Structure formats: structure tokens, C-alpha cells
Amino acid sequence: MLGFRRVLTAFPVSSALILGGSVAASAAGNPGRTPNPSGGPLDINCGGIPAVASITFNKEFAKTYTLADGTVKVMIEGRQLVTVTGNGKVLSFNSSGPCAIYFRPDGSVTVVVEGHTFYIAPTLDGIWLYKGKVVADGVTGLITSHDGHVTDICALLS
Fold first, then answer.
1. End-to-end CA distance of the chain
2. β-strands 127-131, 49-66 pairing
């Protein structure tokens, strides 16, 4: 997985666990804030068109809080840019916007993203850019609700 805060895929919980884990380097001047790690490129099948999504710029930071009910909240903020290549095209997208990941005591995980959300289907066969609020199940990686505009990135590659 790319490790995007705004990229939701089949493995969102493992990404969130990476975010919630300890990172040696702290962001200067803001104790408890750690750099959000990036992963490598991810191959996606866009209706028979092979595509590759990559992070091209990542200045995101995560901060972890424990809420009164025992829920662990990972808040991710900063700037991130993504590039998708396929079918001879190179497309670049802003995937910045705040993200909150909630690990609840009952084992459920909810991801709430606002701004620009770069979403890769859990089956790795589709890519969309959401502008607005997106809520996803952090266990399945599936979007449970959204508002705003949606762009089908695979359609742009065809």
C-alpha cells in the first residue's frame, strides 16, 4: 500500500497501525507529531489498462490521541501529491486534506477524510478522487458515505 493518509485501499488498518506506531523522528517544534511514512508504488487494473499510483510529494504528519472512551484517534494533516501513470498518460493529483482514524475499543475502525481523498478500490481495480467528506470502514476499506464531487481516474486514463 502507498501509505497515503488519503488513499484508502484493502489494507487501511495496517497503514493506520503504521501511523499509530512509534516513529523515531518527531516533527520539530511540535512534540508528539511524527512524519507520516510513504510506501512504494501500487499497481492498479483500470478496466484492462495497467496503471501505477505513486506518491510524488509527502509532507504529512500524524499525531495520536486517546479519547475518554478509550478510542485511539490518529489525526493526519499536511500536504501530499499523487501521480498516476497508465495508457501513455501521466496524471497528478492533490491528495491533501485532514484525516482522522478512530480505533474503537470494540475493534471497529472508522476513517474520516475531508478535502481531497485519493481512493483505490480494495480489489485494486479502480481509482477515484473524492473532493469533500469521505467516511470509510477501516477494516474493509469500503466507503460508507461521502459528499462532494467524485472523479473516476481510470476513466481519465482511457
1. 24
2. unpaired
**Cβ neighbour number for residue 28 with a 10 Å cutoff:** 7
Coil vs helix vs strand at 58: strand
DSSP code string of 60-126: EEEEEEE-TTS-EEEEEEEEEEEEEEETTEEEEEE--S-EEEEE-TTS-EEEEE-SEEEEE-TTSS-
pLDDT at 38: 77
- Looking only at the bridges linking them, the beta strands covering 109-113 and 49-66 are unpaired
Which of the residues in the chain have pLDDT under 70? 1-31
Query: From CA 103, how far away is CA 14, in angstroms rounded?
Result: 12
Report domain extents, the chain. Answer: 7-22+31-157
Written as nine digits, the cell of 99 is 484525516
> Rounded CA gap, 84 and 146, in Å?
23
- pLDDT, tens digit (0-9, with 9 covering 90-100), for 30-65: 667 888 877 789 999 999 999 999 999 999 999 999
